[in-house]
């Protein structure tokens, strides 16, 4: 198969021929029709993820496609099915999975991290009966692929972890794919959304997704600007980028008893959190890590009903040959970049 791979962390990302994957007894192989370019892939390429233990490595973890083959133990899926997959592939049997919390599975695998990912023509998925999600015939592969990491992660972060309610103020720090998804979902929930970013183009996209107030993160104290706009601070604030600066600003943006949700991955460096404010204002600090396959139906129904429009987040589509260059320059193009491995572009 054709795939994008690297031999050194931070090294060249090139298109090459690699062996096709085979399904595990409980797994499946998916023919990738669309796969998103995500900052988490950049972190993996840079060596920030301990799950990448051997090189060469193929990145990519949010994808949709067609079941190519299944292992002998798979009961619910046949070749030809249209599917997508959460970026956390659960085992289905550990204590967390038994409690319905597959997004924090104790034995999770992640394509693009624990094994080769979806910047390729084919990708292997473990425990297919637990992790595959059916894609409706009227949903494009690009839309389905955009759900697997950023949109589903944002959906759970806003609706379930952050518990956003109508009329609340929500601040979203970082308007990349996750942030724009969070803006759209919070707006659909009836919240008043403040978008924070250093890019005017990203803030313009946030307005299209439903944000009503905007903060230029490069123009002074972003948290102070959010507190002023919201007359005391946001009820919920999300760090959708993942940096020490955006994390601290998100916490500082909150009003008393507010909820901070950390969504963006943070590098290994120390992250200064204003703990005095956390204590004095009784703030809640929450992590959000994807969404289990069984939690997809409410999100899918909102998309079907036209309440959510994840397809609006996709701002460009590229071929597999351009994926390496695009990953190296991630963040330079607002919105979601989609890769189509089987389409010459």
UniProtKB/TrEMBL annotation:
Its EC number is 1.1.1.1. Residues 10-339 form the Enoyl reductase (ER) domain. The keyword Transferase does not apply. It is an enzyme of class 1 (oxidoreductase). Its cofactor is Zn(2+). GO terms for molecular function: alcohol dehydrogenase (NAD+) activity; zinc ion binding. The keyword Oxidoreductase applies. Keywords: Metal-binding, Oxidoreductase, Zinc. It holds the Pfam family ADH_zinc_N. Coiled coil: none annotated. Belongs to the zinc-containing alcohol dehydrogenase family. This is Alcohol dehydrogenase. It comes from Nonomuraea muscovyensis.
